Amino acid sequence: RRVHGGINRTRNTFPTHHERMSLSRVEEQTVRALVEQYGFPRHRCEEAVRNITIKSDVQLACEWLLDHGEEDKGGAVRPVHCPHLDDLRLALIDRSRVAVNDPCVSGCESKENWLCLCCGETRCGRYVNGHSLSHHKETKAHDERQLTVDEASRGITALGHFISISLGDVSVWCYECNSYVDHPRTDPFVDQVRHLKFGSPPAAANKRIRENVSVGDPIQASHTAMHGSLGDPNWAAPTVAVVCPQQSRPNYKSGAAHEYLDSPQVLEAKVRILANLILKSQNCIAYTGAGISTASGIADYATRSSQSVVSDQPRPSVSPINAPPTVSHRILTDLFRHGYLKHWIQQNHDGLPQKAGFPQEHINEIHGAWFDPTNPVVAMSGTLRPDLLQLLTDWEEKSDLCLAMGTSMCGMNSDRVAVTPAMKHRSGEALGTVVVSLQTTQYDHLSTLRIFATIDTVMQMLACELNLTPGPVTTLTPSVPEEELASHVFTNLPYNSQGKRDAGCSLTLDLRIGKKVRLVNQPDWDLERAGNEGDICNITSEGHVVVMVAYRERVMGVWWLEAAKRGTVEYIPLVNVE
């Protein structure tokens, strides 16, 4: 993992004398190094230092931060293939020996234990006393002493007990690769740990699914995976609506792209439960993927069949950037207006929630946005914007109900906002996660409610249950004085010259064509590649502002103007170059 040195340094401050009193001199030095060298928030650095055993080890603290929410790598975790496991002479333990509740053999109190797949013993991780790592080193040293000259001449090397599985997040680590790894030989252990921890069926059960799937066949899954933990045992199983054996998201954690539908009676019952969950929730969030926008004419990643259920729906023939919001975007916006929905994590870049009237300040476009010039689309191996990642983790902790809709949840960092409420539900701390999509996901077995239907169908039925009447699709007009919209000069904005909200300031923003502007709150990687200055080159018929940056056009959505006028966002994307 890379540590990015430019992570929002402006948010970090040095401690007062009172704050220093709670840290030892060594701890304070480590915290300062993390803040100054890597730009991590100070309160998170203090947390890291409290949780590692070697207080002076800056790298160890840094790794703790990356593993506990400060990881700024966007997209999916991509374990490497472990070549050592290709040697079938290297024996692993029998899967029946996997236990998830055994303590560290050295007696350490730890929630971060690792199971050695070479001997079956459990030891604590590197953030506690590092006994798992020590075990590898000791066994490798032993194997090296046993290695003969003849074996060494034939290229045989000592590995020791090199492979372990985390009993926390179920990841697999190879000490010889020095990386998280993936291999067919470890899959049974991963599934066994998940089965023991979460109750999900082992992989062997999934592999028994018939290869010759036909339309009308019932889904082959556990009751929870097909209906959720609140599912009625008498409900009929969802059935195959479209057959497509291709993997929905190749190279990620996803299954075949078959599509399933609940029966009308079961769907009706599920939507009633969904409505009751929303009425009970205090902090309901939406977590949406590309599937919510397909009805607008924007293609998704996971749909593989040309005969998809959604292909029968009429779609506008427009450019994706001009696509209108779907009925689901409008109903989610209505849910927000009525106080049922508190926050929206949007994996798409399309701006359709804002086009439906959803306020910019209550949405997190975690993977980048077409209508925010300071939030460019993040590549799968790219870096998330630190403030958006912080916002994501904040809502991960506070949400009690997540509506995960149209997302394959194939291993993105942001999937945590769906997994955490689901896990909290198991201990009675939250209402859980509702998953709505046509295809299966790896987290179906964790759901409180699992719905197989198109998102628009579910949302329209939900609107009826809650007596919501979403407005029609209209041209979005921001609440800004007409003369300012006409002149493209916006005055008395409560922001300082750096674009940060400040009630004591009164900024004028001149967005007339030809004016020079500076991008605000830009991620470091984008600043390095494109710079932070540009020229206004166009105002679209919808009022969106087009700025040319490094010979490429970027767009600021017209809704940003209303947010800037009201002072509802912490930063505005553009300020004039003085």
Written description of the protein model:
- The two termini are 39 Å apart.
- Strand 5 and strand 6 form a beta hairpin.
- The N terminus is likely disordered.
- The strands form five sheets. The chain has a six-stranded mixed beta sheet with strand order 1-6-5-4-2-3, sandwiched between helices.
- The protein has 578 residues and is α/β, with parallel strands linked by helices.
- 29% of the residues lie in helices and 15% in strands.
Nutshell version of this structure?
The protein is built from 18 helices and 21 strands.
Itemize the secondary structure elements and their pairings.
Elements: H1 17-20, H2 25-38, H3 42-51, H4 58-67, E1 80-81, E2 113-116, E3 122-124, H5 131-146, H6 149-153, E4 163-166, E5 172-174, E6 179-182, H7 187-198, H8 203-207, H9 223-227, E7 239-242, E8 259-261, H10 264-280, E9 284-288, H11 327-337, E10 343-346, H12 352-355, E11 363-364, H13 386-398, E12 401-405, H14 416-426, E13 432-436, E14 449-451, H15 455-465, H16 482-487, E15 489-493, E16 507-510, E17 516-519, H17 524-530, E18 533-539, E19 545-549, E20 552-556, H18 559-566, E21 574-576
Parallel strand pairs: 1-6, 9-10, 9-12, 10-11, 12-13, 13-14
Antiparallel strand pairs: 2-3, 2-4, 4-5, 5-6, 7-8, 15-16, 17-18, 17-21, 18-19, 19-20
Helix pairs in contact: 2-3, 3-4, 10-15, 11-15, 13-14
